Amino acid sequence: MPITISIPDNLRQSVEAASGGRNTVIYDVKGYPSIMCVIPKFNLQDIDPSLGTGVHPAFLVNGVEKPEIFIGKFQSTVHDGVALSLPNQSPTVSINFDTAKSRATDKGTGWHLTNVFEWSAITMFCMKNNFQPRGNTQNGRSHEAQFETGRRIDNKPPGDSSGTPRTLVGSGPMSWYHNNTPFGIADLVGNVWEWTDLFKTNNGQILCPSDNHFTLPEENWTARNIYFNSTAPDNT
Predict the structure, then answer these.
(1) Domain range summary for the chain, segments of one domain joined by +
(2) Phi, psi of 121, rounded to the nearest 5 degrees
(3) pTM of the model
(4) How many CB atoms lie within 10 A of CB 157?
(5) Do the Cβ atoms of 191 and 90 come closer than 8 Å?
(6) pLDDT greater than 90 at residue 218
(7) What is the largest CA-CA distance in the chain?
(8) At 203, is the secondary structure helix, strand, or coil?
(9) E strand or H helix at 97, and its extent?
(10) What DSSP string runs through 124-154?
């Protein structure tokens, strides 16, 4: 969720110092802080030449190149009508797309629901670094590595199939962060369902903007010459 509001203070300075600038704190219009991961700009060819050349579209907003994007470090918890990225909270669930989107945009100018371009950038980063994060995929633990656990919100032991097995955000091990460090994005895998923006289908046809133009109205998204279960090239 990139943002433009920035208020230097003791909390922000301490988070940036502890993380070497890889995390920061940004405040919304209500004054609430969210801890964000700073993702520096990279080029497609730096990931794989077969992807093409130029800046990854996550770092282009309506054609304007950005040096970095800010992604919420933690799955969101809604408080006072806005989504917050804070550690050791119970993530908000049972929320539809429109409500989830408004909980992000109501935070102020620049805030938005994480979208497919940003997810793509994070995924490509993981692939390039030969790291696949794990997460809460089996009742409070990883099904692949069952010794990896988080703190369940119902205080039941990991693996117990009863109760509510969601974990407090960020309570898992480093392997549950996107870069295998405590300064990465937590819980990308598992725990709860998450909404993403800037992508939809119509009868199987993909519609989306050309870059991370997160304020572009949905009716202005481009219908691509790409369909699910199709190998047709995108010529639009």
Answers:
(1) 10-130+193-227
(2) -60, -45
(3) 0.89
(4) 11
(5) no
(6) yes
(7) 53
(8) coil
(9) helix 97-105
(10) HHHHHTT-----B-SSSB-SSSTT-B--BTT
Cβ contact 54:74 at 8 Å: no
**For 133-160, what is each residue's pLDDT tens digit?**
999 999 999 999 999 999 999 999 999 9
Q: What is the DSSP string of 63-81?
A: TEE-SEEEEESS--EEETT
Instruction: For residue 223, list its beta bridge partners.
Output: 207
Please give the Cα distance from 148 to 93 (Å, whole number): 23
Q: What is the mean pLDDT of residues 199-215?
A: 95
184 CB neighbour count, 10 Å cutoff: 23
Which pLDDT does position 8 carry in this prediction?
61
The token pair at 120 is 């793509």
| Residue 229 pLDDT class (50, 70, 90 cuts) | confident
Give the model's pLDDT for residue 228.
Answer: 83
Residue type, 208: C
